[in-house]
Amino acid sequence: MSTAEGTTVSPQGTLELRAWAEQILISDSVATKLAPVRPALLTDSCPGPAVRLVEPTRPANLQFAPRRSAPNMPPASRFNESRQRGIAHHIMANHELQALEVMAWVLLAFPDAPAEYRRGMATIMQDEQRHTRMHIERAAALDVPFGSLPVNCYIWKKAQSFGSLLDYVAGLPLTFEGANLDHSLQFEQWFLEAGDRKGAAVMRQIHHDEIEHVAFGWKWLRLLKPEDATEWQTYCAHLAWPLRPEKSMGDLFSSSSRLAAGMTPEFILELENFREGNAKPAARAQLKDNP
Ligand SMILES: [Fe+2]
Ligand SMILES: [Fe+2]
Prior knowledge:
Elements: E1 15-16, H1 17-26, H2 30-33, E2 42-43, H3 82-109, H4 115-141, H5 154-159, H6 165-193, H7 197-224, H8 231-237, H9 255-260, H10 265-273, H11 281-289
Parallel strand pairs: 1-2
Helix pairs in contact: 1-3, 3-4, 4-7, 6-7
The structure holds fe (ii) ion (2 copies).
One fe (ii) ion (FE2) binds near residues 96, 127, 128, 131 and 206.
């Protein structure tokens, strides 16, 4: 049975995680990809065989554009222009949509993941749907409708190298979402300086949720890591170039957000040692030696 948004639900109203992931990845409708689901109705009794989709289906105006053809993030100096803020929301809507698509991809690629891991992913996916909708709404309000600009595939392409649950944890929650702990605060500031309180409020909400998303990554890093390896060693060992610790941080570095996500002071110190232009040579050598 299908709802108005094209969601596949059972006669009892339940929705299998696999079916939900498939509709996010295979539907060419943004409304269907972002259709809210009731958490209590999500079931996971048939995770099915492992499937690795090469590309998500998207509407014609949101196809991944060739490299370097999507607009760059506007600098702080241009946030006083409403169109530039709209472009920023458009870029971030595509980031959020890719995060949702990658998470759906993980549900299909790793059906044997612990049930709690899959359930945790589903909760985060609902946040990513909401984040995408918030950015789309603000972009449209600033006369930049979603799909009116080329979009990149950076996050999706990097996810194609994930071969294990730990690869995902290191790559997406602890690197891309880790960096967004800083970026969301930075953008909140830029929106506020431009007098755009609505844009700032979106960034504040996303920052708040992102702490939980990074906490998910941290929790599973600790649960899945080898007993004789540290969190830092495991994190580095599961990053595939060009992902590296520097990519998990913005210009502004929020230690308190990372502490709130559960990271230890030791791990945060390792990260700080890796900040762009601030890496200790010994630490870099250690990373390169990792498989
Ligand atoms: Fe998000
Ligand atoms: Fe997130």
